[in-house]
Design a protein that fits this description.
Elements (H helix, E strand, L loop, with lengths): L1 E5 L6 H14 L4 E4 L17 H11 L4 E7 L6 H14 L4 E5 L18 H20 L2 E5 L4 E6 L12 E4 L3 H10 L2 E4 L11 H21 L8 E5 L13 H14 L3 E5 L11 H14 L2
Helix pairs in contact: 1-2, 2-3, 3-4, 4-5, 5-6
Length: 299
Amino acid sequence: MRLSTVILPFRRWHEGGRDAWLRAEQLGFHAAYTYDHLSWRVPFRDGPWFGAVPTLTAAAGATERMRLGTLVTSPNFRHPVTLAKELISLDDLSGGRITLGIGAGGTGFDAVALGQEPWSPRERADRFAEFVPLLDRLLTEDTVTHEGRFYSAHEAQNIPGCVQRPRLPFAVAATGPRGLKLAARHGQAWVTTGDPKLAETGTPEESLEAMRDQLVRLGKACAEAGRDAAELDKVLLSGFTPEGSAPLQSLDAFVDFAGRHRELGFTEIVVHTPIPETRFAADPVVFERIATEAPAQLA
């Protein structure tokens, strides 16, 4: 099982931002991701928040080995044509270390930041179903023309393409049937945070059962797409299950948590780099023990 981290982009680069990415690599994390939002929920809503692509560009220059990526990007304020150009550039700058975590988006601040009315769940799914295949083409073909319901491209050129071939990997966040089909057809990984309905009032056992069901449905979607589900990495973005931050309270607690999810079939667990006085608060010493000692116990 791989262990990765999320570094929220709320620090100025020269006031702790750079240090967080460097430390993540020093600790041996498989990957470090960041959220791709224009702003995020309280307590970050009215404070500093930096863009994902510039942050990852800086991180690519500061690190050497660790994979980098978004967890996740969405159509809320992105267009496939411009996003493809930025991703190809990022992949080049990082020497082929970028993973695109991508999801349908939600109803948060990003949903209305460009002045649009919030999209319904159906419209988000419709847009996502068009967004992902077009982005796939833009990252694998030199020139793309497409006329869609939501997104179009006219002779959009993306030469020389990604360093990673045929393109950088997609980690598709999905739990519904349409999203799981996109993960099966276009993903190199699948991402979940568990069942959001259980986050506040569910039990760890109910959460495991819900994720077991998600994995079964992913397997069926892969079979329908003619793929072996084993080809996809299964990624759990932790911190949103009924356990909350409890797995980061001790090394033993984390190994127990990660081990139960490994048994389900997960291949990567992502933990948030600690942020005091937030839902991601954790003892930095314990966090670093988890980073350095847990992978060997989960091998």
